[in-house]
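Write out the 3D structure for:
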Amino acid sequence: MFTAQRVTEHRDGDDLLSAGLGLDGLREMKPPAFANPEAPTPAELRRRALWSNWRGIADLTPAGGFGSVYGELPSVPGREFQALATLPGAKQPHRVLVQIPDGFDQKKRCLVVAASSGSRGVYGAIAVAGPWALPKGCAVAYTDKGAGTDYFDLAERRGVRIDGTSGGADDVLAFKPDSTATSGVAFKHAHSRDNPEADWGRHVKQAAEYGLRALAEALPQQAPFTFDDTRVIAVGISNGGGAVLRAAELDGDWLKGVVAGEPNVYVDAAGSRTLYDYTTEAALLMPCALPKLGLPAVPDVAQRCAAAVAAGLIAGADLPAQQAAAYGALHASGWTDEALRAGSISVTFDLWRAVAVTYASAYGRYGAGEEPCIAGFGALNADGTPRTSTPAERAAWWSDASGIPPGAGVAFRVAKPAEPHDALNCLRALWTGNDAAATRVKKGIAETRAGLPRKGLPVLVVHGLDDGLIPAAFSSAPYAAAAKAGGADLRYWQVRNAQHFDAFLGLPQYGAAYLPLLPYVYRALDRVWARVDGGAELPADAVIATTPRGMGKALEASHLALP
């Protein structure tokens, strides 16, 4: 079940939360340097991975309030245990990593299990769980839930070892694809052939099991550690939030409480929509619709509207009519103006298409070189033509990548560079069509449908009402309604003026208009832990009325109105 274990100590200028960087080091704009860019050491890779993942999740700018208004980042010494964990029937492992602070509270025996957000690597929930749990003496078990940054160069036959360094195909690698392709790059989320999202809950439980095993090895005088004598709570945001909700539905009393922030969750209930459905819809319609909100048009707005017409999503004789039709169609399918405004940044970064191409491959269980609608993944020249990855790029994949291209020198390759929007129509047809490829992808999507949480399990769901990537109306709201109707012990906090990406709040306009979600996740953990530890009642449902801080102002506690 667990292989390639690696145990490391982090003290004396190093620590569990920031590898010795501290808040000031994490705020540096440039990542920690490698002495040799083509052969960084495991310690250098870990430090840079922590820097990347903190900055990818949290707003660490001085005006953002982390460390002063909410959250803390002390130096926490301790040990890390990490391994490759494989679910029964899975083709590829997922990474699990356990942080055990030297100050582990042996009287309360607390283990927080956290799933990475998005497709991030195993440190992808460090900002979500670590600052809350480790200073309190809780251990933390992380999982990349079958995604992560263990990229594999198909031409060079090189991947990533357990310590993050580059290794050959004969080494023990965290991901070795089942593919005969000889060019490009494979990565676990898209190319494992496991459809990892279908097993998110089991990934979380297996990480908890490894956490108990690591605790027993680290603290033999206190062993054994079991689900009966160690309280386990789960937390995650975005895809990680969806993962802990999937864990909540598993049988048994192993899990004592759950906090899910802005979860990607799809349930059989009115209003719930699959991520793939609304992502491919947004990819086609949102660039065309945004001018109706008074937002600047994308440079190729006419072609984007034409692509939506070609996909059969809208009609219109001219550009203004098409823009009005796109805006109306998004409203009719459940998008709010608030979600559309916040979602505009995903248009700017072409995030909708990036998500769609990865998830189409994952849901269809396609291997590298078999992806629908695109010509694979890999490095590109400035003119868009394929090239091979450099040794320095390969060396930094594990620390720098987000787990979903483009980024870290890897992009998706468009089959017809002269017609870039054809891929969007193709991706949408995998949801709306009925051919063999669409049937294959939709079968994988159906496998991701969530069940309801186990009765009696305390669950607190937190979601920003301005979320433009995973709108609450498609995810948390129908999930909470279905769970409550099924008798679950669930509470739902809806946060006004909060969108999906805390990390984007460093952008002046975003920071002025939106508030971070992490403070509410930490407060939700406080309340769930009070229930687990002392039997306190969960807080009531709430629609939290917040106050944006405005341009050029620092975040204050009064802006948050924390429950």
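The two ends are 41 Å apart (CA to CA).
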